[in-house]
Amino acid sequence: MQNLAGIKVMVIDDSNTIRRSAEIFLGQAGCEVILAEDGFDALAKISDHHPDVIFVDVMMPRLDGYQTCSLIKKNPKFKSTPVIMLSSKDGLFDRARGRMVGSDEYLTKPFTKDSLLQAVGAHAAHT
């Protein structure tokens, strides 16, 4: 089990189930977890919490994952913060679109505990 103690991870997803499972998986690994229900909620919390890694769901109401990622990456303070897209679609187009807005990785839902922790471990090391 990877020890990710003290790493701040934000999970932005409009699904309560996804947020809960991510919170449990990450919490068990020692991460500090910040949850947001959508892009607007997330943008307000990012500046307060300065997460080390951000997971963002692609399909969300109001502000989708691509727009949210783009806004995070346009902010000079958070440009280098790793953003990992979460999507139930695993298409090339979606991955390419994610890269275009600056995302660092693309994780397909439903994710496993291992894939989630691996992504955090890989990206948190660079911060």
Question: What do you see in this structure?
Answer:
The protein has a single domain (8-121), classed as Rossmann fold. The protein has helices at 16-28, 39-49, 65-74, 92-100, 113-124, and strands at residues 8-12, 32-36, 53-57, 83-87, 105-108. The protein is α/β, with parallel strands linked by helices and 127 residues long. The mean pLDDT is 93. It is globular and about 30 Å long. It starts with 7 loop residues before the first strand and ends with a helix. The chain contains five helices and five strands; from the N terminus they run E-H-E-H-E-H-E-H-E-H. The chain has a five-stranded parallel sheet with strand order 2-1-3-4-5, with helices on both faces.
Instruction: Order the strands across the largest sheet as they lie in space.
Output: 2-1-3-4-5
Proportion of β residues?
A: 15-25%
The average pLDDT score comes to 93
Number of domains: 1
* End-to-end distance: 21 Å
**Helix count, per DSSP?**
5
Uncertain regions spanning at least 5 consecutive residues: none
Question: Which structural class is indicated by helix and strand composition?
Answer: alpha/beta
- CATH homologous superfamily title: Response regulator
CATH class: Alpha Beta
Helix amount, in percent? 40-55%
What is the tally of beta strands?
A: 5
Could you give a short account of the major beta sheet?
5 strands, parallel
What is the fold-level CATH name, i.e. the topology? Rossmann fold
